[in-house]
C-alpha cells in the first residue's frame, strides 16, 4: 500500500469519526436538555443557561458559515441547514465525499488530488493561476539570490527534520512603503527595543491574546535546490520583481514561494503565492474546522456543571446521560483543537495536558460555583491570573537577568502555546490545588475529598508529562522544509498544478 493510499485511509477514519462525533454530540445535547426539563425544579439553572447557549451559539455559527458559503449553496438548502442547525454537519460531509472519490479512483494523480481535497475540504478557498508574459531566448536569465550555496535537492530534504548547514533562515527584507519582499538589504520587520513596560504589555499581549501572523519566503532554482529562506511577523504583500536588471535586460528564473499565515480565536488563514518564470499561482485558504468546533470547550464546561449539579441534587449519583455527555464533549474537544496542518502525533502528545489541566480545573470551578457564581468566578480568575503572572515574571527575569528574549523569533511567537509553558502551568496548578484543599477544609464531604484527590493526581501527572512532551512534538511550522511542503500541497489543492 502506497503512502498516499495510507494517508487517504487515515483521512477516511478521521472524517467518519468527526461526523459521528458531531451527530452524537448533537443528540446528547438535546437529550440532556430534555432530561433537565423533566427535573426542572432542581436543574433550572443548568437548563436555562445551557439552552440559551446552545441556541445562540448554534445560530451564530450556522449564520456565519452560510455567510461564508453564500452563493455556493442553493437558497432552499441553506434555509434548511440554518433552521436545523446542521450547516457544520453539511461541511464535514465534504471530507467524506472526497475520501470516497479517492478510494474509488485507480489513477495515482487523481488519488493525490482527492487526498488533498479531503484534507482541506472543511475550508473556503480562493485560487488564481495566471500565465506571465514570456521573454525571448536572448534575454539573460539568472538567480535573484546574491550568493548561491551548494545545497542538496529539495526532494532529499522533505523528510529531514534538521536544516542543512549550508543555508539558514534569515529576516525577510521589505520595501518600506509597499511591504513587497526585497532580495537585497533594506527595511525589515525589526522589533522594538524591549523595555520593562514593553515586556509587560506589548510582548505578553502578543503572545497570549493578539492575532498571530507569520510569513515565509522561499527561493528555489530550476532544479529544486533551496537557495534562500526568510521569515517575518509582517505579512508580505508580494514577491520581488521578475526583472533583476534592465540594462542588460535580466529576468529572474528562480521559483518563489510566499506563505502568509494568520491565526486568531476560531479562525486560521493561509495565503500561498508561487511564481516561476512562466506563471503565478495563488491560493487563499480559510480553515473552517476551528470555527465549527470552537464552542465545544464551552459546551464541555456547561455539561460539567450540569453533571456536578446532578450529583448534588441526586445525593451522589449522576445519571449515565450526564456522564456520557461531558465525556464525549471533552473527547471531541481533545480531537478538534488542532490546526489542519498539525500532525496527529502532536495532537495526541498534548491530549494528556489538556485532560489533566483544563478538564480537571473545569470541574473544580463548576463544583465551587454551586455555592455561588461569585466564588466560581473568583476561582477561575485567580487561576488564570496566576498563570499570566508567572509567564510575565519568566519573560522579565530572562530579559533583565540573563538578557535572553524568550520566544524572540517570529516562528516561536506564532507557535506559542501557554499550556506548554512550565512556569505558567505550575502556577495555575498550585493555585488550583490550594483552592481544592481550602474547599475540602471548609466543606468536608466525600465529593470534595474525591475532587481533591483527583485534582492532585491529575496535576502531578500533568506536570511530569509536561517535562517530557517537548521531545514528542514535531511542530511543522518550525521546520521550513515542512512549511515548503505545506505550501506546495496548498498550491496543488487550489490550482491543480500537479
Task: Explain this structure.
The chain has helices at residues 3-38, 40-68, 75-84, 87-104, 108-119, 196-208, 289-292, 296-313, 320-336, 344-369, 373-402, 410-414, 422-442, 446-469, 480-495, and strands spanning 123-131, 140-142, 169-171, 173-174, 181-182, 187-188, 212-220, 226-232, 243-246, 249-252, 255-264, 267-275, 279-287. It has 498 residues and is of the alpha+beta class. The strands form three sheets. The chain has a seven-stranded mixed β-sheet. A three-stranded mixed β-sheet has the order 2-10-9, with no helix packed on it. The protein is globular, with a radius of gyration of 26 Å.
Write a concise keyword list for the protein shown above.
single chain; alpha+beta; 7-stranded mixed β-sheet; 15 helices
Mean pLDDT: 85
Helical content class: 55-70%
Biggest sheet: strands side by side, in what order? 1-13-12-11-7-8-3
Strand content: 5-15%
- Total strand count, please? 13
Q: Helices and strands, in N-to-C order?
A: HHHHHEEEEEEHEEEEEEEHHHHHHHHH
Report the biggest beta sheet as strand number plus sense, adding barrel if it closes: 7 strands, mixed
Give the number of helices.
Answer: 15
Residue stretches low in confidence (pLDDT < 50, at least 5 long) are 148-166
Radius of gyration (CA) equals 26 Å
Distance between the termini: 21 Å
Coarse morphology:
globular
Task: Assign the structural class, choosing from mainly alpha, mainly beta, alpha/beta, alpha+beta, or little secondary structure.
Answer: alpha+beta
Amino acid at each position: 500500500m502506497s503512502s498516499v493510499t495510507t494517508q487517504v485511509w487515515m483521512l477516511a477514519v478521521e472524517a467518519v469519526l468527526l461526523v459521528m462525533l458531531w451527530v452524537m454530540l448533537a443528540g446528547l445535547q438535546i437529550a440532556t436538555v430534555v432530561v433537565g426539563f423533566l427535573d426542572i425544579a432542581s436543574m433550572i439553572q443548568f437548563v436555562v443557561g445551557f439552552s440559551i447557549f446552545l441556541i445562540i451559539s448554534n445560530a451564530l455559527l450556522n449564520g456565519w458559515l452560510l455567510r461564508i458559503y453564500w452563493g455556493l449553496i442553493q437558497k432552499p438548502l441553506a434555509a434548511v441547514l440554518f433552521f436545523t442547525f446542521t450547516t457544520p454537519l453539511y461541511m464535514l460531509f465534504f471530507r467524506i465525499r472526497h475520501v470516497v472519490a479517492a478510494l474509488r479512483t485507480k489513477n495515482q494523480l487523481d488519488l493525490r488530488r482527492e487526498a488533498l481535497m479531503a484534507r482541506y475540504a472543511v475550508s473556503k478557498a480562493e485560487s488564481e493561476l495566471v500565465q506571465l508574459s514570456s521573454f525571448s531566448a536572448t534575454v539573460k536569465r539568472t538567480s535573484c539570490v546574491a550568493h548561491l550555496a551548494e545545497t542538496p535537492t529539495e526532494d532529499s530534504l522533505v523528510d529531514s527534520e534538521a536544516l542543512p548547514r549550508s543555508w539558514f533562515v534569515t529576516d525577510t527584507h521589505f520595501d518600506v512603503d509597499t511591504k513587497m519582499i526585497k532580495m537585497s538589504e533594506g527595511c525589515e520587520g525589526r522589533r522594538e527595543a524591549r523595555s520593562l513596560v514593553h515586556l509587560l504589555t506589548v510582548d505578553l499581549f502578543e503572545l497570549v491574546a493578539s492575532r498571530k501572523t507569520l510569513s515565509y519566503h522561499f527561493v528555489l532554482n530550476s532544479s529544486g535546490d533551496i537557495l534562500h529562506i526568510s521569515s517575518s511577523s509582517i505579512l508580505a504583500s508580494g514577491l520581488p520583481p521578475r526583472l533583476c536588471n534592465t540594462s542588460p535586460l535580466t529576468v529572474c528564473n528562480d521559483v518563489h514561494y510566499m506563505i502568509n499565515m494568520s491565526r486568531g480565536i476560531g479562525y486560521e488563514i493561509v495565503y500561498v503565492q508561487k511564481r516561476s518564470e512562466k506563471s503565478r499561482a495563488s491560493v487563499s485558504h480559510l480553515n473552517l474546522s476551528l470555527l465549527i468546533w470552537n464552542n465545544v470547550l464551552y459546551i464541555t464546561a456547561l455539561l460539567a456543571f450540569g453533571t456536578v449539579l446532578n450529583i448534588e441534587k441526586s445525593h451522589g449519583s449522576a445519571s449515565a446521560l450526564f456522564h456520557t455527555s461531558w465525556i464525549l464533549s471533552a473527547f471531541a474537544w481533545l480531537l478538534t483543537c488542532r490546526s489542519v496542518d498539525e500532525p496527529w502525533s502532536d495532537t495526541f502528545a498534548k491530549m494528556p495536558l489538556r485532560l489533566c489541566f483544563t478538564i480537571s480545573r473545569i470541574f473544580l470551578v463548576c463544583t465551587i460555583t454551586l455555592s455561588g457564581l461569585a466564588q466560581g468566578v473568583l476561582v477561575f480568575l485567580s487561576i488564570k491570573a496566576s498563570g499570566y503572572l508567572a509567564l510575565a515574571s519568566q519573560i522579565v527575569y530572562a530579559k533583565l537577568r540573563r538578557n535572553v528574549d524568550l520566544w524572540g523569533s517570529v516562528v516561536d511567537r506564532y507557535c506559542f502555546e501557554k499550556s506548554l509553558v512550565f512556569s505558567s502551568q505550575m502556577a495555575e496548578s498550585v493555585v488550583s490545588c490550594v483552592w481544592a484543599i481550602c474547599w475540602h477544609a471548609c466543606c468536608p464531604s466525600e465529593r470534595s475529598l474525591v475532587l481533591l484527590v483527583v485534582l492532585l493526581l491529575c496535576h502531578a501527572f500533568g506536570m511530569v508529562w509536561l517535562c517530557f512532551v517537548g521531545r514528542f512534538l514535531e511542530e511543522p511550522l518550525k521546520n521550513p522544509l515542512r512549511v515548503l511542503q505545506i505550501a506546495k500541497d496548498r498550491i496543488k489543492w487550489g490550482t491543480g498544478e500537479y
